[in-house]
Amino acid sequence: xxxxxxxxxxxxxxxxxxxxxxxxxxxxxxxxxxxxxxxxxxxxxxxxxxxxxxxxxxxxxxxxxxxxxxxxxxxxxxxxxxxxxxxxxxxxxxxxxxxxxxxxxxxxxxxxxxxxxxxxxxxxxxxxxxxxxxxxxxxxxxxxxxxxxxxxxxxxxxxxxxxxxxxxxxxxxxxxxxxxxxxxxxxxxxxxxxxxxxxxxxxxxxxxxxxxxxxxxxxxxxxxxxxxxxxxxxxxxxxxxxxxxxxxxxxxxxxxxxxxxxxxxxxxxxxxxxxxxxxxxxxxxxxxxxxxxxxxxxxxxxxxxxxxxxxxxxxxxxxxxxxxxxxxxxxxxxxxx
Length: 337
Prior knowledge:
337 residues, 6-stranded antiparallel sheet, alpha+beta
């Protein structure tokens, strides 16, 4: 009996040690949780996040908070089990966040680049909303290309086949809307005088092109800078754009309330989908937000993960976001998810 008891005891001890080892072993998953939220109208390390010089700016009684997702990159089974049972967290395969063949540093570098690009698009969209149009200007012309002899460096491109050119990406889209070999009517302004050139596109790298390089300009009589570190990805674009508009317009977009949201934004002001909406809603609620701006494509997921007393407003563009905030200020009806 004594020998059998020792055997049982040793077996139980071995099982316990193995269990502890398994629980402490790393697994190929990451845990997503609510990340920090940041007021784009506020300051970071004593400096304004959105800094404008050369023009008077307005102050706001409320906040416009961008939301983020926290990532726990090294996960052990114990943490994964806790995450699976937490209503505020999600456990997902590691490759969804860190694709195979890419190091953590490479992913973070890409996220930083996307974050910088989102700031640039936010500036472009916000300034366009405020009446500063984008100009697409010819930088170079290939002498032996389709536009040789028809367009010149410095030409301000205005239309393609009568459709307005509102951005560099929009120009590309208009050219690609017709097959290679199509004759395009290209409207331009040269030295202040309007003109139209007929340019026949050619296929290059499998796509129609007209043999020019362009640059995008947006003249405005002040300087604008966004400075916020330790944030990655493109999903802050919408909230940055709203912050810029709020600072440059006399009206307080917040109505004195804490507004949270998320969404990518392009140069045209279109709001696109993001990841981690469930965790961002939790972060917004914890930050005291009274309303959350949701990209239209994320509405279904947001509704499934809705937080108590946090209305979800559906937005597909910067214009729609501004309309929704006006409704919040005045007590009107805003489009909801």
